[in-house]
Predict the structure.
Amino acid sequence: MRLRFLLLLAALPACSDDYEYKPDPGYGELGVGVFLYECPTSGDPYCANGSPAAEFPQAFALGGRIHLKYNWKDDSEHFSDPLPQLQSASPTLLARESDGFTALATGYAAVLAVTGNSEIVDLRHLHIREIDALRVSNIGDTLPLSELHLEAGAETLLQARALDVDDVTLGGVLGHAWTTADPDILSITAGADSGQVRLQGGLAGDTTLTLTLGELSVAIAVTIEPPEDGTSTGSTDSTSTGSTDSTGDTDATGTGTGTDSSTGTSTDTGTSTGTTGGAL
Amino acid sequence: MTRLLPLALLLAACGPRYDGINIELHSEPPVPVHVSDNDFELPAGIAVVIDVKPLSSNQFDYYESDQLDLRSDNRQVLRVEPTENSRRFVLIGVAPGETCVQVEVDYHDRGCIPAVVTAPEP
C-alpha cells in the first residue's frame, strides 16, 4: 500500500500541467551528446550558410526543412564509435528525408539518436508550430521593417523571419518568395526564393517589395533616391523604418516600435534605421 | 542422476521469484505523460525514457544480467526501444491508438502493459 502511494507521488510531477520543458541547452535529454541545428543553405535567421546555429531554435515552422547533426558530448567516452543516426519518433509529425527532416504537423516530435545496435543513446523533442506572421528586418536586426530607403545603385540585404503566435522566430528552411513591383526601381540580385534577399536600387522612385510564404505576405514600401552626387556608385546606403509584421494573408504596415523576443538574446525597441556598409 | 535432481531443484529455488516490475520515468518530456507499472499513456511524437526493475517476492533479487525485454505489440502505434543500459528503455508514441507492451523476464512472458498513444499535443 505504501509502495503504491510512493509510486503515485512519483508519477504526479509527470502529470502536472505547469511543467516547463527546458532541456539543457544544446544537449540531448539523456545528456550523452549535443544536437546541433545546421543551416546548409543561406536564409535561415538562426545561422549562416553551412554553419551550426549558436543556439538551438525554441520552435520550428510547420512545413520547414530541419537539418540536425549529433555529436558526442565527450569524444573520449565514444572513441572510434560511429556517430548515431537520427530518426524521427513519429513520421506523421516529422518526416525523415535524405538531407534532414520536414515538419509535417504541429506538436512535439522527438528526434532519436540511434546506434548501429538499434539502441537509443539520446533524444530531443522539437516543437513544431504554425507560422502566425512574417517579418522582414535588416540583417543582424530583429526590428520589423515596413519602409526601405535606398540610394540608386546601392545594395542591401534583408532577412525574413517566420514567427509563431508567441512571436518566437521559428527555425526551418521555408519556401519564401520575394518580388518587386518594379524591377527597374528595385531589383532582386540574389535570394529571391530564400529567407535572405539581396536588393539593389535602380531608378529613383517608389515601389513595393513583397515577401510571400504560403498564404502569408508582407509588403515593404521602397523608395529609391537619386545618389547625392547624381551618379550611381554602388555603395550601400539604405534606411529602413521599423513597423509591424504581417499576420494572416493581408499586408500590414505600422510605425515605430517593435519588440522581438524570438531568439532569446535581446529585445529591440525603437525604429530600425541605417543599413549601411560596403559592398555586400 | 537421482542425486543431481535435488541439487538442481535447490538451485532453482535459490533464484528470484517474479513479482511484477517497477517502472519509473527517467526523462522529462515536454508534455505530461502517464507512466506506471500498470499502463502507459503518451501523445504521438513524444519519447520518454523509463527505468524498469523486475521485482522478486523472495530474498533473491534480480541481477542486472538477468534478461529483461519489453516489446510493443504494434510498433505503428508505440515503439519500445532499448538503450545502452539493459534496464532502461525508450517508449515512443508513433501514432494515436492502443496497444500492449509485452514484458519478458528471464525468457518468460510476464504479461503485457496496456498503452495508449493520444493525438499529438499542439
Observations:
- The helical segments of chain A are 2-15.
- Chain A touches chain B at residues 7, 10-11, 14-17, 19, 21, 23, 29-30, 89-94, 105-110, 112, 114-115, 118-121, 123, 125, 127 (CB under 8 Å).
- Residues 2-15 of chain A form the longest helix (14 residues).
